[in-house]
Each structure stands twice: as structure tokens, then as C-alpha cells.
Amino acid sequence: MPDIADLDKIVDGLKAEEKEVFLRLFRVSAAVGQIRPPETMHGWIKAQFGSVEQTLNQKIIRVTNLITFEESLFNKLRADRPMAPKEYSEVVVGQDPFDEPEKNTPGDVFGRVTGKYCISAGNVAKYDGLHGVIVFNEANPLKFTADQVADYIDTGLKWAYRAHQVDSEAKYYFFMWNCLWKAGASLVHGHAQVALTRHMHYAKIERRRRAAISYRDRYGSDYFGDLYLAHRYVGCGIEHDGVRVLAHLTPVKEKEVVLMAPQTSDALNKAVYIALSCLRDDLGVSSFNVVVQMPPIAEAEEDWSGFPVMVRIVDRGDPDSKVSDVGAMELYAASVIASDPFSVAAALKKRL
User: Fold this and answer.
1) Which residues contact 340 (CB under 8 A, 6 or more apart)?
2) Which of 56, 124, 294, 313 has the most CB atoms in a 10 Å sphere around its CB?
């Protein structure tokens, strides 16, 4: 049986005319994710994944549709990830591998990055060659302060620069924080994930870059600036200390907030905390996704001029509900939204 892990080899073996058509449509790249787990977690890895050896060097296949920029990353090991208990109250301290991360999580090949309120770890089941975890000292993912949020973001970026020293071709950084199981977290203990990829940015970010360039070429105007102005004109855009904050008019899901700034900064970190605390305390959000989308951390051939640092935050619904917030419409057509961006904007304005 063919295996997705061998797709790069399968493509290499195609006839010339077949390969030409395939490569016109798709890019396939492979990466190897490596971890260095301490002996204290070998028993858990064996129980979860079958052997320690198969986790040490993991092949990840990345397939990108170059026409639509749909994209998938494959690693069979991720199917065996531990999943969170159904209720937050079911967490038992002794069963939390993030409780003592230096004993119960692997380090990256370049070691760990330690922040004031968090520490990095290598992801046991990687989705890219350089893929890590930022483990929060605070286990409860809904307990966070402005200083903690800033430290999580800053430590993630430090991890990216350390990873870039290991692989100079890896320069496209992505930060994501999945809070609770409705947002895709496999463990309840507060943590974010970080990745640094090669060749080009992840497809949805690259698609936005290309769209912004097309907009500039057609209209002679900055897409991101006009995006903010359009939101501001209708009452859904706010500027705070140089950070542009949008109650998004085309949210991917409920109550999405988009923040844009020219570069990473203390002001941006503070605005992220304000937006998060607003969603948590004023709008009742308890499960959410946070991502940081930004230009490459090293020089790249393509044009990133005008592309800001973007932080996107979205509500993922009640973690105790069995109903998914994503259905066929979201997967294949358009997002169906129940919340009102204007209500989100009003709450943000009070905070900002």
C-alpha cells in the first residue's frame, strides 16, 4: 500500500509528463522532526507510541496546492497524541506531563528556551521539522496576566531564532495557542505551540501576502491599511498605542479579533492581553485560538513589504458542549457566524 510518508519518493518516480502535471499543481516537501526525550518519559512514550525510537526522527510530509493554496501536513504519529479529559476538573496533577516539563517533555536538539513564566519543549508528535511547545508555568489556561501573555509570545519568538540557528533555511515562524479541547488542545495544561518552516510560509499566510500584493498592484494602496480603515469607518476598528484592533467583519468563527502592528512590541503584547481578557471576562469566552502571523525572521526572496505582524484570536465555543463549531460550511464554503462583530467592537472599545 502507498504511504503518505513516501509521497515525495512516489512523485520522483513518476513519468516525465505525469510529473510535469503534478508539480504544476502541487509542491511536496519533507522534513525530519527530532526530539531528545529524557529517560524519565521513555515509559510514557512507549505506552503511547509503541517505541521511543520512532519518535526520535519523524518524517513530516507537507503538501501544498499551488493554485488554491490549500495545504496539509502529515505525520502518522500525531494520531497517537494523548487527548485531554472531558472536564477540566478531571485533571489529576500526577498525570500532567507539563507539570514537570524538564522531566516529562523532550527538549529540542538545540536545548530549551526559558522565559519568566514558561519553558520550551520539543513536540513529541511533530507537524513540521521544527515544531515545539511553550509550556506555561500556570497550569490553568484561563489564568493569565499581561506579563504572562507577553512572556509566552516573547519566548516563542526566542525559540524561533534558536531554531533558525539550527536550520538557516527555516525562517517562516508561526505561533499558536489552543486553549482547551474545543480549540484543539490535546492537554488542558496551558501551553502554546511554535513552528518554523522552510521554502515559503504556511499556505494561508502566503495566500494573504500574495493577495495584498495583488491589491497594491491593482489599486496602488496598502491592503492592510485599507482593511483597518474599512473597519474603522463602520465602527469596528480601534487604534491603541500604535496597534490596530479589528472586530473582524469576516471572522473565521465567533468573536474574532485581529490585531496588526508594524513589528513585535510591548504595545502589541499588551493589546493581545487586553483583547484576550476582554473575550474571557466580558464576553464569556473560555476556549479560544490565538495565532501570530508575521513576515519571515530572516531575509527571503519574496516581497513582504507592508505585511504587518498579525495576531488573530477567535472564540471556539463552550468547552462542555458536544456540538462542534465547524461543519461542512466552514470546511468547504464559508464560515457561518452567530456572534455580532459590533458587540465585540463595543466590548473592545471599553477595554481599550
Assistant:
1) none
2) 124
Under CATH, which architecture does the 203-351 domain have?
2-Layer Sandwich (3.30)
Residue 125 has phi, psi (to 5 degrees) of -115, 95
SS3 240: strand
Copy the grid coordinates of residue 7: 509521497
Please report, as a single letter, which amino acid is at residue 51. S
Helix (H, G, I), strand (E, B) or coil at 53: helix
Q: What is the pLDDT of residue 90?
A: 44
Question: Given the C-alpha cell 507537524, which residue does it identify?
Answer: 127
Neighbouring-strand partners of residue 243: 240
- Measured distance CA(309)–CA(173) in Å, rounded: 11
Strands 130-136 and 309-315: unpaired
Site of grid cell 513576515: 295
List pLDDT tens digits, range 15-70: 999 989 888 888 989 999 999 999 999 998 898 888 999 899 998 889 888 887 87
Q: What does the domain layout of the chain look like in residue ranges? A: 4-166+187-192, 203-351
Strand, helix or coil at 83? coil
Joined grid coordinates for residue 335? 464560515
